[in-house]
Design goal:
Elements: E1 2-7, H1 11-22, E2 27-33, H2 36-46, E3 50-54, H3 62-68, E4 74-79, H4 87-93, E5 97-100, H5 105-116, H6 124-135, H7 153-163, H8 168-175, H9 179-193, H10 198-207
Parallel strand pairs: 1-2, 1-3, 3-4, 4-5
Helix pairs in contact: 2-3, 3-4, 7-9, 7-10, 8-9
């Protein structure tokens, strides 16, 4: 059973998402919060697996709440197109994924399951904005982090593909290996680089210059 906490300052959003998720046999809504501070407090009390986190909330916004929950539950950021500017900052804060508020109901349910399973969830529009963020930055020479030296050539290749938004299935097809082999590589990459999930791996790959925007 996947335990979910919903944080949004709009009552209708909390109730609507709550009813939708509660109707799923494998999901349990353990609580909700109307601001970031309450979300942090309730997450620590209720120990959810996933927090659905709005960005703009009173008292404490979703980004700060996400930072304070680092190392705890997975955070799925609820965003609208005009909030995509927050994508990079939210990933740095520790978010595991993003979901557009106008996404179909089935997408919300699937998003919670994907994030709970430890996968990153980046909607195509969000991924494009993230890449644009890096493309707009001055191309300064970035030193190659020593941590990258710990990766094998194949692991480095897998990391590049993760950064380009490829799923495990797509990476397996590209490299002509079993999907389980890819999962093993991904696990080793995250462990060696001290990263929590694929979302952090994407940021790491771009920040270190392993992958350049537009490649």
């Amino acid at each position: 059973m996947i335990k979910v906490l919903i944080a949004d300052d709009q009552t209708m959003v909390r109730q609507g998402f709550g009813a939708l998720l509660a109707a799923q046999p494998d999901l349990l809504v353990v609580g909700d919060a109307a601001d970031g501070a309450a979300a942090v407090a309730k997450a620590r009390d209720l120990n959810p697996d996933v927090v659905l986190m709005d960005v703009r909330m009173p008292v404490m916004d979703g980004l700060e709440a996400t930072r304070r929950l680092a190392g705890g539950p997975k955070v799925l950021i609820l965003t609208t197109f005009d909030l995509d500017d927050y994508v990079y900052e939210a990933l740095r804060a520790g978010a595991s994924g993003f979901l557009l508020k106008d996404a179909p109901a089935a997408d919300l349910v699937q998003a919670v399951r994907v994030v709970a399973a430890g996968e990153a969830l980046l909607a195509p529009s969000v991924t494009r904005r993230l890449i644009a963020e890096f493309a707009a930055r001055p191309q300064s020479a970035r030193p190659r982090p020593v941590a990258l030296n710990a990766l094998t050539p194949r692991e480095t290749e897998v990391l590049r593909l993760i950064a380009r938004g490829r799923s495990n299935q797509e990476i397996a097809a590209d490299l002509v290996v079993a999907e389980q082999t890819v999962k093993t590589h991904v696990g080793r990459i995250l462990t060696k680089l001290g990263l929590r999930d694929r979302a952090q791996a994407v940021v790491f790959a771009y920040e270190t210059g392993l992958v350049a925007a537009g490649e």
